[in-house]
Design brief:
With about 290 residues, this protein is an all-alpha fold. It is built from 14 helices and no strands. It has helices spanning about 10-35, 40-45, 60-65, 70-100, 105-120, 125-135, 150-160, 165-175, 180-190, 190-210, 210-215, 225-235, 240-250, 255-290.
Length: about 290
């Protein structure tokens, strides 16, 4: 029995090599930062790191846990991401469900009212004044309330809801279910792809947000992780004198550059861990939401 030889087309081979090169270019910065974070700070500063650590150590991570600022900022980022994502899903999802109804009063005019701010807004200064007047300055809610409603995500969810079979809602209403019951028990379980898509959008936005922490608070213990990381990179002051003293007593040697790299890894890992669990829903949700506008 003759075995068939696998034919490799030159174009396919070229595409494969190009994709491999793209993956290497994309992943190498992450690998470099991680290897730097587990390398001895002094050795890493004097020699170039490639794809393996130099004098492996966990002192950089120990220094992170010694610094209460970074731990506090990390938990603020976790809290704002979880609470902000849940509130966004609730408010935006309910609005999308309402707009998916063709018999909604003034539906087209209301949609236009919400869509216009996607293209035009009042600017940063009026927004800042509004935040201050609402009493949200130096308030944890400033990270959550302004993002409770997302017009783009609402439109994506609306399109998805419109494609669900109306028979599901009709059968539930025949059994005596109200609109909220239909939304909670029929629409949400049937809409996991688009919900996962919105979770990725708003979750990444909340986790990576740094400007609001810089603008709307002047308290050090209210800064999220990304804002603190921005200050570390900008000011090049990753370690305070007090922290250096604590690290010296613990026989831990670190440098500002090593702290930057370690903080970058800590701020990136949560998104890398969560994404694989949502990926199968994320791709499907994006494709379905793009069918019609």
């Amino acid at each position: 029995m003759k075995t068939k030889r696998l034919k490799v087309r030159p174009l396919s081979l070229l595409n494969g090599l190009a994709l491999i090169a793209l993956c290497v270019v994309t992943l190498y910065p992450i690998v470099y930062v991680f290897m730097y974070s587990i390398s001895d700070a002094a050795a890493a500063a004097s020699r170039s790191i490639t794809v393996y650590p130099i004098e492996f150590t966990l002192d950089n991570y120990r220094s992170i846990f010694v610094d209460n600022r970074i731990l506090k900022a990390f938990w603020i980022s976790v809290e704002r991401t979880v609470l902000g994502t849940l509130l966004h899903l609730l408010v935006t999802g309910l609005a999308a469900y309402a707009f998916s109804k063709e018999n909604l009063f003034m539906r087209r005019k209301l949609l236009m009212f919400f869509i216009i701010p996607l293209y035009f807004n009042g600017g940063l200064l009026p927004f800042y004044v509004q935040i201050v007047n609402l009493g949200l300055y130096n308030n944890f809610l400033v990270y959550i309330l302004p993002t409770a409603m997302g017009i783009f995500n609402m439109l994506v969810m609306k399109v998805f809801f419109e494609q669900l079979p109306r028979s599901l809602e009709e059968s539930a209403k025949v059994d005596g279910a109200g609109e909220f019951t239909v939304f909670a028990r029929i629409i949400i379980p049937s809409s996991m792809p688009v919900i996962a898509t919105v979770i990725m959008f708003i979750g990444v936005q909340q986790w990576n947000s740094w400007f609001d922490g810089l603008l709307f608070t002047n308290k050090a213990d209210m800064a999220p992780l990304q804002t603190l990381l921005y200050k570390i990179i900008l000011e090049n002051q990753a370690t305070s004198m007090e922290q250096l003293a604590r690290l010296a007593n613990a026989n831990v040697s670190v440098t500002p550059e090593a702290i930057k790299m370690t903080t970058l890894i800590i701020s990136t890992v949560p998104m890398l861990v969560i994404y694989p669990f949502l990926q199968k829903y994320f791709v499907k949700g994006m494709m379905i939401g793009a069918v019609k506008g």
